[in-house]
Amino acid sequence: MGKKVIISVISDLVTDQRVNRSAMALHEEGWEVLLIGRRLPHSPEMDVRTYHTKRFRLWFHTGPLFYLNYNIRVFVYLLSNRFDVAFSNDLDTLPANFIASRLKNAKVVYDSHEYFTGVPELAERKLVRGIWKSLEKIFLPPIKYLFTVNNSIAELYRKEYNINFKVMRNVPLLPKMEVIAKAEGRKKYGLPENQFIYILQGSGINIQRGAEEAVEAMQYLENSTLLILGGGDVLDILKEKVKQLSLTDKIIFKPRMSYQDMMQHTQCADVGLTLDKDTNINYRFSLPNKLFDYIHAGIPVLASDLPEIRKVVEEYNIGMITDTHDPKSLSAIMKKMNDPLLILNWKTNLTTAAKELNWEKEKTVLTETFRTF
């Protein structure tokens, strides 16, 4: 009987690419892998995976009872089943994993996808943030095997708790998707064939991420389209803004879709936008998935001036950095990127970046740790 790892995450599993990549990497290493999460009333069906998955139906879907309900379900499941490693993703799954692993004398691994207590949703909720901070202080310091998404967040935790996180960035797998000509792809997906297309994609199109300003900037651009693809809490606001500004002929909304379909849409664009604002510590040190998706789709990037993002864009020279979110000023930079010579140079550099920034290389941070178990 091989060694078994149970990976838990509070998301719906279907769209969480980071945990999917981790699970696949460990399965390829010979581990018996079970990935557990939650199932919502309208959750899509799971796709076929090389490892086992399980989704809990919970009594609550938001608030403190939801987190308590989830952790109790995970805790009971872990106590009732064999495992050698409990692999916790983010602080909201850690209490169950930590306690169960101690009771069963198993190892616990922790992967922090962000600086959890710095998320904007907690900024004005001092009591709730204090509770999460207390849990973090209890559970993090004793853990030996710790991962996070970039050096800045690793350094925050080191200063706060004197613990060392290994960095495992959110880089994608080398694409196995069909590469089609841009004109053919645009025709296939109903996108304008003779427009310069900017794309803002991802599952976190939320407040303070520059989406509102990107929409407003489209007022000042000719022969251009903005494709907003994915989900988030600001979409209704964006759609209303589009109506108010009479921009329905310039902006296309598409819902969440499979990763493969999302990447094929992204290939059809000319420039990818990542415009998070420096409004909180978590956004300041963000290194979003979409940055690497744009790189692997071969499209240049227009990014806000945040340290981790700037490092990648400047190191590989794959686009431009903006220090403003003023819509008119932003539009001027967006227009400047519509330059065939610049785009040709960026595309050459994007090929180099994609060869270096991929999961096939990044996963060794994880697999080499598990080989010591």
Short description:
The protein has helices at 17-28, 63-80, 94-103, 126-139, 151-161, 182-188, 211-217, 235-244, 259-267, 281-284, 289-297, 307-316, 327-336, 340-356, 359-362, 364-370, and strands at residues 4-8, 32-39, 52-57, 85-89, 107-112, 145-148, 166-167, 196-202, 224-230, 251-254, 271-274, 301-304, 319-322. The radius of gyration is 21 Å and the shape is globular. The protein contains 16 helices and 13 strands.
Overview of the structural elements:
With 373 residues, this protein is an alpha/beta fold. Helix content is 43%, strand content 18%. The protein has helices at 17-28, 63-80, 94-103, 126-139, 151-161, 182-188, 211-217, 235-244, 259-267, 281-284, 289-297, 307-316, 327-336, 340-356, 359-362, 364-370, and strands spanning 4-8, 32-39, 52-57, 85-89, 107-112, 145-148, 166-167, 196-202, 224-230, 251-254, 271-274, 301-304, 319-322. The strands form two sheets. Strands 3-2-1-4-5-6-7 form a seven-stranded parallel sheet, sandwiched between helices. The chain has a six-stranded parallel sheet with strand order 10-9-8-11-12-13, with helices on both faces. Strand 8 (196-202), helix 7 (211-217) and strand 9 (224-230) form a beta-alpha-beta unit. The relative contact order is 0.11. The model has no long low-confidence stretch (mean pLDDT 92).
